[in-house]
Design goal:
about 325 residues, about 65% strand
Length: about 325
């Protein structure tokens, strides 16, 4: 006779075995490695117009040569030295500066204005040379004073937008813009020299015990081309780099600019996002016009930290 009792016992054991394995299978499913989080998607181009205005201060140091009426003086002055020589003497502690950009999709239109009245004297100024047509020995320079305005305008067009690999972390959204524009320069400069018996002062102005060379108004326009890179390193935080080159003999012989900085959002109110800007800016130009006693030259590097507040809406 069939062993029904044995078969029943086997079936019970099989069911118990299956039931006992179910929690283990479920636990194994729970312990399976979770899929890796996909990298952060690159931000799409925003639709509609956006605007950004940045009033900022450029704590400018200067290094180079200033030529007025054929007389050339070298300048090497840090920002603290310029502050020392301008406070109480009609100069400004920090020039007035502002930057504006309107953007629609990949296209941006921008403008930037710098105005400064700078005076440097003492050990920061040294006479370099006189034009060969001007007689007299080279004495000592006393001071250099420059009223200067720089206005820049142009367009930026985004040519690439991608995620920059960053190890195991999500990719960093990155955008590259090409920049084309023009930079307008306006200057009024003067050099003062300590009087000496051999100094040719026939075309200079005498002020107390010094001879003063004045340039009058000088202006020119430089075309420029460049590029800008933007990295969104975290929500509300970005790093930007920009460089351009210009002049090309149209206005100045050559001009270049390099800017780098960090921006961070800190407030939002009434549809306006406020951001702090910390960076560094260097701007060089080599310009010359005229000859002899009418020669004017500005071969100067201006550089220093930039601090500002951006308003974006």
């Amino acid at each position: 006779m069939p062993d029904y009792a044995g078969r029943s016992l086997v079936r019970r054991f099989a069911w118990m075995s299956c039931l006992s394995l179910m929690p283990i299978a479920a636990l194994a499913a729970d312990l399976s490695p979770a899929p890796e989080a996909p990298p952060a998607a690159v931000t799409e181009l925003p639709s509609g117009w956006s605007f950004r205005f940045i009033p900022y201060g450029w704590l400018t140091s200067m290094a180079g040569k200033q030529t007025v009426r054929g007389r050339t003086a070298s300048v090497d002055a840090s920002f603290p030295k310029i502050v020392e020589d301008t406070i109480g003497k009609g100069g400004t502690l920090v020039g007035l500066m502002g930057d504006f950009e309107a953007r629609y999709g990949a296209l941006g239109l921008y403008g930037d204005i710098v105005w400064a009245k700078v005076g440097v004297s003492g050990d920061s100024v040294h006479t370099r040379r006189f034009d060969p047509t001007i007689s007299g020995t080279i004495g000592t320079s006393h001071s250099v004073n420059v009223n200067m305005a720089i206005a820049e305008g142009g367009a930026a067009y985004e040519v690439a937008r991608f995620g920059l690999p960053h190890g195991d972390s999500p990719a960093i959204p990155t955008a590259i813009d090409l920049v084309v524009g023009a930079r307008y320069w306006y200057q009024q400069a003067s050099l003062s020299f300590n009087l000496s018996t051999s100094l040719d002062i026939s075309d200079l102005t005498l002020v107390r015990n010094r001879a003063l060379a004045k340039s009058g108004s000088v202006d020119w326009v430089d075309p420029l081309v460049g590029a800008r890179v933007r990295f969104m390193v975290a929500p509300g935080q970005n790093i930007f780099l920009r460089g351009d080159v210009g002049g090309f003999g149209v206005g100045s012989k050559i001009s270049w600019q390099a800017i780098g900085g960090y921006g961070f959002d800190f407030a939002e109110k009434n549809g306006i996002t406020y951001s702090g800007i910390i960076g560094f800016r260097a701007l060089y130009v080599d310009y010359v016009q005229g000859a002899g006693r009418n020669r004017y030259g500005f071969d100067m590097l201006q550089y220093g930290p930039v601090l500002g507040v951006a308003m974006r809406f």
